[in-house]
Amino acid sequence: MIDLRECILSKDNLIPLLRKLRKEARLIAPVQNEYGDTLFSEIEDIDATEIDLENQPQASLKPFFLPQQETLAKYSIKNGEYRFTEPESAQETIYFGVRSCDLTALLYMDLIFSKPVKDATHYERRNHSLIITLGCNQPFENCFCEATGSGPYLEYGYGLQFIDLGDRYFVSAGRGKGAGSFPR
Fold this sequence. Notes:
The chain has 184 residues and is of the alpha/beta class. The protein has helices spanning 14-24, 62-65, 100-112, 120-127, 145-148; strands at residues 6-10, 26-32, 38-43, 74-78, 81-85, 93-98, 129-134, 160-164, 168-173.
């Protein structure tokens, strides 16, 4: 039996892995825009997009979990009666290349949205997400993972954690979705 909790992934196999995952869910990853800023963006075509794993993303995942605008309900009036319909459920989403500090911020959001009453919309998005982190071999100049005790490598909270070994990645699975996430 193959132990799917830890494996070595050649960097040559990263794009085929992401291509396969992209078929199953929406893929969000760090991409450098035309101004040179690295931002988390939705990847439509994995072969036409260069994912930037060298630079620190300049924005967090917060807009994906807590958008500035969203539809909470829709209604229509028919024969003087109001009919309410709820918005569609959250889309399955894979967040790739998430740094330890960004995931820690998301875990703090989970804590905030769990009390005094659990925020159903936030947790629906979280329950439909797989977080694939990328450990930092060398923390960035403006990184705060050491100050928060969140890295550069994580012990919990992730689905999969990638650690750069040069020409390959050491991949470890977290609990839950990460444990069965390696495509066969």
